[in-house]
């Protein structure tokens, strides 16, 4: 019994950082979902560029389902 | 997913934005011009080997700001231009579920190992790194700075990263950091046969700075590509009063083409929310143990080695040449050798544990 209690205590300490991290990720995700633009809002229309430098508007992406993912080199 | 849903009319784009972690893996620094950011996006194309096109955000980061300012967020937009899904952090498995729901399932799911991406390494530095010890700058934040760009002038071979501690940003008194980093896209290296980099700071009345001018240490090696760094103490910097920084240095491209340039910046006492988090000392250094641990996280059968089907990312296309003993598996020794190779031949910063600190 004493060993089991100790094991639970150890497991709690081992699991704690991962739980906290997951909780923070979840909180950030929820905060992001509440920030504008919301789901069901239009995609903001701004000028962007193709990688060869051609300017276009994000509104030009209409007509298809589109997946947009932010990224960079590092 | 692009292969599965592209034929169903779904468009995929990566959005290239400001660097989240300048100095990391490749010693890349924030671009100053759109042309430089476009070059970043084309390099990202090569390094990732993906066929998904990049959309490049404008230099004022308007799309990043308009979409919530997250480094790796993801949006699914319907044909009417309405956002139907959004995530703070990209989650490919979830996107697949979304597309199955919105567009329909595919007959056969393409696996990562079916794609055979041709990945490339980051740009190789044209001269040695790890020659000049890095300075330590804990708990500092990037501040807003504007380079004075002359349309027909020479490029900023060296680019400033300006950071301040929280006291300086909040109260106008604290520590200010300047790091002049050679931009790998201009392929430059320091010309150590002439005067070292120097700077001059022009301040408004009442501001106190312990070094209004300073000169980088003389380096024995003919050339190198380490950043030139300075740490200053500042007092009474009023909010809304910019400082003017003039830097002079000599950089060479190749053996023959050397340029002595004088370039200017305006610095603001304001956190730059698009500046990204640099790692400073040790940036670009691949810790062999950490690298091997990450690679072995794909070891599905738990034998302590990576088979070709377990390998991911950069090492997959190079698997056969990295498998030194040709047993079809990458063991710890072979994985450690890869990180050594990355450190010494491609993006070597200095190992944090071994570096000599200069205050």
Explain this structure to me?
The complex is a heterodimer of chains A (74) and B (359). Chain A has a two-stranded antiparallel ribbon. Chain A has one domain (2-61). Residues 1-16 of chain A have low confidence and may be disordered. Chain A is α+β, with helices and mostly antiparallel strands and 74 residues long. Chain A is built from one helix and three strands; from the N terminus they run H-E-E-E. Chain B has 359 residues and is an alpha+beta fold. Chain B has three domains: 2-115, Glutaredoxin (3-Layer(aba) Sandwich), CATH 3.40.30; 140-271, Gamma-adaptin ear (GAE) domain (Immunoglobulin-like), CATH 2.60.40; 288-345, Recoverin, domain 1, CATH 1.10.238. Chain B is globular. Chain B starts with a helix and ends in a 14-residue tail after the last helix. The chains are: A alpha+beta (74), B alpha+beta (359).
In the CATH hierarchy, the third-tier topology of the largest domain in chain B is known as Immunoglobulin-like
CATH structural architecture of the largest domain in chain B: Sandwich
SSE topology string of chain A:
HEEE
Question: What global shape of chain B is seen?
Answer: globular
Note the main sheet of chain B: 10 strands, antiparallel
Q: Kindly report the average pLDDT value of chain B.
A: 88
Q: Over the alpha carbons, how many angstroms does the gyration radius of chain B reach?
A: 23 Å
- What is the distance, rounded to the nearest whole angstrom, between the alpha carbons of the first and last residues of chain A? 50 Å
Low-confidence stretches of chain B: 352-359
In total, the number of strands of chain B is: 16
- Measured by DSSP, the beta-strand proportion of chain A falls in 15-25%
Number of domains of chain B: 3
The stretches of 5 or more residues of chain A where confidence is low (pLDDT under 50) are 1-16
| Main sheet overview of chain A | 2 strands, antiparallel
Query: Total number of β-strand segments of chain A?
Result: 3
Task: Using the coordinates above, name the CATH class of the largest domain in chain B.
Answer: Mainly Beta
Shape of chain A: extended
Assembly form of the protein: heterodimer
CATH superfamily of the largest domain in chain B: Gamma-adaptin ear (GAE) domain
């Amino acid at each position: 019994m004493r060993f089991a209690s100790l094991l639970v205590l150890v497991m709690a300490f081992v699991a704690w950082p991962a739980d906290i991290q997951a909780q923070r990720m979840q909180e950030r995700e929820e905060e992001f979902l509440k920030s504008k633009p919301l789901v069901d809002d239009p995609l903001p229309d701004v000028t962007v560029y193709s990688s060869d430098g051609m300017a276009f508007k994000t509104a030009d992406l209409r007509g298809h389902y589109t997946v947009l993912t932010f990224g960079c080199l590092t | 997913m692009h292969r599965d849903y592209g034929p169903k009319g779904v468009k995929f784009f990566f959005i290239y934005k400001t660097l989240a972690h300048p100095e990391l893996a490749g010693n890349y620094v924030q671009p100053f011009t759109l042309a430089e950011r476009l070059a970043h996006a084309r390099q990202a194309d090569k390094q990732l080997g993906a066929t998904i096109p990049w959309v490049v955000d404008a230099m004022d980061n308007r799309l990043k700001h308009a979409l919530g300012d997250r480094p790796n967020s993801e949006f699914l937009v319907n044909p009417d231009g309405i956002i139907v899904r959004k995530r703070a952090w990209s989650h490919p498995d979830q996107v697949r579920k979304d597309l199955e729901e919105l567009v329909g399932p595919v007959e056969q799911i393409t696996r990562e190992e079916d794609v055979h991406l041709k990945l490339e390494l980051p740009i190789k530095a044209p001269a040695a790194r790890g020659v000049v010890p890095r300075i330590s700058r804990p708990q500092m934040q990037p501040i807003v700075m504007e380079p004075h760009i002359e349309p027909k002038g020479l490029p900023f071979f060296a680019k400033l990263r300006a950071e301040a501690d929280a006291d300086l940003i909040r109260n106008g008194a604290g520590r200010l950091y300047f790091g002049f980093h050679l931009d790998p896209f201009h392929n430059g290296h320091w010309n150590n046969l002439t005067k070292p980099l120097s700077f001059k700071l022009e301040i408004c009345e009442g501001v106190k700075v312990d070094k209004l001018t300073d000169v980088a240490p003389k380096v024995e090696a003919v050339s190198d590509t380490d950043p030139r760094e300075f740490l200053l103490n500042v007092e009474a910097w009023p909010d809304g009063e910019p400082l003017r920084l003039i830097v002079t240095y000599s950089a060479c491209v190749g053996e023959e083409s050397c340029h002595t340039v004088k370039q200017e910046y305006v610095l603001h006492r304001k956190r730059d929310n698009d500046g990204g988090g640099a790692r400073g000392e040790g940036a670009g250094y691949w810790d062999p143990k950490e690298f091997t641990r990450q690679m072995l996280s794909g070891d599905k059968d738990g034998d302590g080695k990576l088979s070709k089907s377990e390998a991911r990312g950069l090492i997959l296309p190079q698997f056969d040449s990295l498998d030194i003993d040709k047993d079809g598996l990458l063991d710890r020794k072979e994985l450690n050798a890869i990180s050594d190779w990355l450190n010494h031949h491609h993006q070597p910063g200095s190992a944090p544990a071994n570096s000599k600190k200069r205050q």
